[in-house]
Amino acid sequence: MGLALHELYEISGLIIRNALYEEYIPTTKDLHLLKKDEPQVYETYWEVLFHFHICGQTTGWRNRGVKQISWTSYLFNDLNDKNVPVIRLAPSTDEEIRKKISASASSYTIESNEDTLKLDTVFESFHHQAKISISDKALLAGFLTLWLKRYVMPTLPHEVIVANVVYPAVLLAHGKLISLLPVMVACI
After folding, report:
1. Does residue 23 surpass a pLDDT of 80?
2. Which residues pair with residue 161 across a beta bridge?
């Protein structure tokens, strides 16, 4: 007994056409094209990645990603307190940024060759991005990373969100249609 994709589409309303859902980190070439063709998507992608790295540096990396509860708590303060309304991520002050940098690694070193970046390339801290209020699109994309990883494509390790899921979440946040139904069915 089973259901065909078109029957699942009728039940769920999830898309079965258009671009297939794929978790990956865009290459430098892809990013250059994205910046030229879709500058808003490009800016949102980088904004979410900055916050992803800030969360990872402040809460600790786990299996090359961040724990779902850490990401959720980072984006939406006081989420665990049922007596307080959920509030979105607020911009950090200079003092908060200094504390976060001193409490975590102040730089990021590439652990393997990534596109045109060589092994051991060092990036300065991403924490200064937190001075800027997170945009609505980036906040939505951040929420969608959690939703995609938890409900659509729950792959191992289940409690961790990896950077590969950021790009499809950003596309969804910008209204780009991605075929989620085949992926969701494949995970059943």
Report:
1. yes
2. 66
Q: What is the pLDDT of residues 63-74, one digit of tens each?
A: 889 999 999 999
In degrees and rounded to multiples of 5, residue 160 shows phi and psi of -120, 140
Residue with tokens 């906040």: 139
SS3 52: helix
This prediction has a pTM of: 0.80
CA end-to-end span of the chain = 14
Omega cis (within 30) before 168 = no
CA 133 to the chain's CA centroid: 17
Instruction: Tell me if residue 10 falls in helix, strand or coil.
Output: helix
Strand-pair category, 19-20 with 178-179: parallel
DSSP 126: S
* Residue entry with tokens 């990872």: 56
Computed from CA positions of residues 148, 153, 155, 158, in that sequence, does the dihedral angle turn out positive or negative? positive
